[in-house]
């Protein structure tokens, strides 16, 4: 199955071919329970491997080189209480936090085909030790990482290491006014986080980005955030307010209007991981009948096995014509459309 993703196998080198073959066949042989059937089945699998080494399947064409984004919602828990967002209202029990080794394995298995790994939540920095491990591994594998954060957990040591690894940090800012900030975050954190943003800018330079959410409540504030970013040379992105289940903010752009533009949803590039390890193709998958149930779980299954199931292909196909307001979310847009 690794052949579907590992397009470097097209490159020259007998060593490469042997490694591809063994990587595929070893997993296969382990799954054959009957010792009598193992040899004939491995022979058949070897023939199949030889064919697929040279034949480019539709699935392989779809998962082009570096064409995917792996997005990990590491937790639902958060130390802020933003009224626009309901994620923090449903934190997973502490003992159900996914062991980071499962995600690292997933990253390792997919890395040839990832242009980016994105960490979000909840608040990812509540699991800073995991984040550091993921950032290290992404760097080692040559996968650029982006983390979206409220900025509360940032410190100099973390930022310095992050900068050296070349990763990008997105801090969410919906106002640069103290009162509005504290209202929008549901916590009195303006005086704590603002100096951290300045520190992040000093250490990260162009690796720092700011993202704001546009709603009726924030629409007066966003131009001021944009101007504040421009003064400091920080790239800024605006995400339209969406229904995250909180219903405390008001749409600046109505859902029908968000869905009405002719832009296609780019979420088919995504491989999304929930805090418990469940895999979906976009975090709004419940809108698509065939995608309601997760495709699998990386705590129990190999990610390539999950992505190669028939339902995974069918879900990707169903997403082709999908047109809901969630297509406007940053994670569902092509990279080139963000942070200009
Ligand atoms: C859910 S947060 C998780 C990461 C981190 N806690 C943060 O706030 O940056 C990811 C992004 O979604 C944005 N967001 C939160 N609620 C939203 C909503 N209802 N509609 C659109 N974006 C929202 C946040 O501002 C943030 O930029
Ligand atoms: S938007 Fe981010 S910081 Fe605010 S409550 Fe949601 S997860 Fe927490
Ligand atoms: S429009 Fe929404 S539900 Fe449909 S594929 Fe895109 S993100 Fe998923």
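Q: What amino acid sequence fits the structure above?
A:
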């Amino acid at each position: 199955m690794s052949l579907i993703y590992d397009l470097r196998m097209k490159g020259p080198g007998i060593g490469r071919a042997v490694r591809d073959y063994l990587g595929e066949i070893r997993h296969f042989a382990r799954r054959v329970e009957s010792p009598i059937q193992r040899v004939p089945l491995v022979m058949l699998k070897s023939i199949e491997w030889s064919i697929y080494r040279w034949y480019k399947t539709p699935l392989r064409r779809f998962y082009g080189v570096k064409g995917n984004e792996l997005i990990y919602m590491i937790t639902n828990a958060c130390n802020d209480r933003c009224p626009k967002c309901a994620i923090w209202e449903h934190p997973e029990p502490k003992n159900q936090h996914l062991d980071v080794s499962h995600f690292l394995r997933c990253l390792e298995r997919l890395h040839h085909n990832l242009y980016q790994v994105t960490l979000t939540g909840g608040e990812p920095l509540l699991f800073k030790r995991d984040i550091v491990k993921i950032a290290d591994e992404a760097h080692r594998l040559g996968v650029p990482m982006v983390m979206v954060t409220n900025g509360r957990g940032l410190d100099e040591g973390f930022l310095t290491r992050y900068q050296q690894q070349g990763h990008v940090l997105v801090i969410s800012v919906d106002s640069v006014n103290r009162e509005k900030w504290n209202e929008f975050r549901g916590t009195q954190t303006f005086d704590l986080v603002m100096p951290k943003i300045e520190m992040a800018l000093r250490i990260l330079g162009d690796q720092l980005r700011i993202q704001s959410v546009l709603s009726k409540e924030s629409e007066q504030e966003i131009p001021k955030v944009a101007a504040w970013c421009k003064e400091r040379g920080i790239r800024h992105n605006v995400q339209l307010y969406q229904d995250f289940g909180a219903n405390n903010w008001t749409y600046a752009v109505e859902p029908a209007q968000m869905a009405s533009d002719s832009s296609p949803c780019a979420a088919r590039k995504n491989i999304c991981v929930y805090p418990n390890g469940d895999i979906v193709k976009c975090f709004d998958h419940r809108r698509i009948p065939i995608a309601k149930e997760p495709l699998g779980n990386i705590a129990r299954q190999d990610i390539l096995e999950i992505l190669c199931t028939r339902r995974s292909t069918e879900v990707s196909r169903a997403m082709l014509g999908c047109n809901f307001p969630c297509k406007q979310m940053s994670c569902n847009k092509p990279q080139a459309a963000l942070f200009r």
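Q: And what stands out in the fold?
A: The beta strands are 68-73, 114-120, 145-149, 168-172, 208-214, 235-240, 270-273, 278-280, 296-297.
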